[in-house]
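Table S4 entry, Zinc finger protein-like 1.
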Amino acid sequence: MGLCKCPKRRVTTLFCFEHRVNVCESCLVSAHPKCIVRSYLQWLQDSDYSPQCPLCQAPLGDRDTVRLLCYDVFHWPCLSGWARALPPRTAPAGHRCPQCGGALFPPPNLQGPVAEALRARLRTAAWARPGLGLPLVKSPPGTPKPPQRLPWAAPNPDSDPAAPVTPPEPPPNPSSPHAVVHMGGGETPTLH
């Protein structure tokens, strides 16, 4: 444990590997957004660190970054591209940190500067909005909408894709909509 050097002078276990100082979460977001930060005990065990994006291996200082709840840092375009490459119906719990497997989305009840900064960044990405419990972003005006598929229309590889789709014919009505079964005293049941 150590004391952060900021005016708040908070006791913290977080340690910036690059600047070799204790940092609180507030300073982590404001003054160390691209730094590798872990616990002080981890730094004592192994002070080696890689100031590169784990996804593209380029220096973190080259582009805009995002810090996850596990404190792993990625280039925002790299993390966003990685998340968009997941299957479209991936549940929010399936979005995990590519480096350590920690949760990508902060729980709704989690407060703090890192969680708030992450939520603010994720709100801007269409793929992340469902994971935050937010509605999807509407397409900008002028964006063509995908063709609507009718639920009963099955794709036919031999048909013309531009041809209109018509629903199948309903089944013919039976001549008599009801059947009467007599279940009388001791007789064999009969159908009328």
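Residues 172 and 178 are 15 Å apart (CA to CA).
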